Amino acid sequence: MVKHHSPTSDSLASSSGAHQEIIGNSPAIQALRRHIQISAAAPFPVLIEGESGTGKELVATALHRSSGNPGPLLPINCAAIPINLLESTLFGHTKGAYTGADRAQSGLFESAGLGTLFLDEVGELPMELQAKLLRVLENGEFRRIGETSTRLSRARIIAASNRDLRRDIQTGRFRADLFHRLDILTVRTPPLREMGSDKLLLLDHFRTNYSAQMGRPPFLLDAQARRCWESHSFPGNTRELRNLVIRLLAQHSGKRISAKQLEAELAQTPGLPSADGCSIEHTARHYLQRQADFNLPSQLKSQERLFIEAALNLSFGNISAAAKRLGLPRTTLCSRIAALKILPSP
């Protein structure tokens, strides 16, 4: 799915009137459309499950718009906000509740009113906030920080996660009772590797849009390059596909791109093996055959940088969240960022 006008979107859907027009004809996309339609009208929480870059926020937008809900849709990325600010962001605070709270402030549960609150990366919520979220889901009750009176929220909750919450329950990272409250209705966003020729539709869509935005003629893929594109797994999903289109447009505007040129671009992005020659093994052979001065430690360091930068981008610069994605202690990630001289994103 792709959003027509947002250059920062990582989704698979585009806005069309009150409903989201889903791009694609694959069985996975058809199933997604059905699940959105079924879940939209029900007044219950929805859990959107899917990998990073598969369009969970725009699926939440589609659910909200299709529901006829008169209130706003308020999104929050639970991994992008420091833990010490997250509770206040969700529930609000009273004046003087903590240092710097010079005035009372409502949280998103109040601001949403009769609308929808979208909790992206809900698996990143700390346990103490999971308990407070559970209370809201059970009876609508919450309190601002520093307040003794109870307030009532009538907002619909849509949550999303790219984590395996069931496994997190087993490891004690996520509350089972909260999961079952969120998992009443579930929508799964498919990864690109399940979408077959839909990847070519997304190519055409992004190429047309960004060509118009940049005022440059589009590039073309020859027949073999198109087969390579369709068979590539795109582990970064639509975000990776979109970024690749932008990079190709910047470098090859108005030109025809061969499979060899495309493979060289794909080799710059860490990925999973895929069929028809576009694979890690193919990339390795390409480098070993063409670079007489190939240096494995240097290449590994380059790949490490790519993974760290990708994790930081996915986590909106939140080092703690990026460390979780990489399976590293926060201190280790900080030292590697310093060693590689990785600059924060602007």
SSE arrangement:
Blueprint: E1 13-16, E2 19-22, H1 27-40, E3 46-49, H2 56-67, E4 73-77, H3 83-91, E5 92-93, E6 105-106, H4 108-111, E7 116-120, H5 127-139, E8 141-142, E9 151-152, E10 156-161, H6 165-170, H7 176-182, E11 185-188, H8 198-214, E12 220-221, H9 223-231, H10 237-252, E13 256-257, H11 259-266, H12 280-290, H13 296-314, H14 319-326, H15 330-340
Parallel strand pairs: 3-10, 3-11, 4-7, 7-10, 12-13
Antiparallel strand pairs: 1-2, 5-6, 8-9
Helix pairs in contact: 1-2, 5-7, 8-10, 9-11, 13-14, 14-15
3D structure, described in words:
Strand 1 and strand 2 form a beta hairpin. Mean pLDDT is 82; it is low at 2-11, 13-20 and 271-279. The strands form five sheets. The protein has a five-stranded parallel beta sheet with strand order 4-7-10-3-11. By secondary structure, the chain is α/β, with parallel strands linked by helices. It has three domains: 13-190, P-loop containing nucleotide triphosphate hydrolases (Rossmann fold); 193-290, Helicase, Ruva Protein, domain 3 (Orthogonal Bundle), CATH 1.10.8; 296-340, Orthogonal Bundle (Arc Repressor Mutant, subunit A), CATH 1.10.10. Helices cover 47% and strands 13% of the residues.
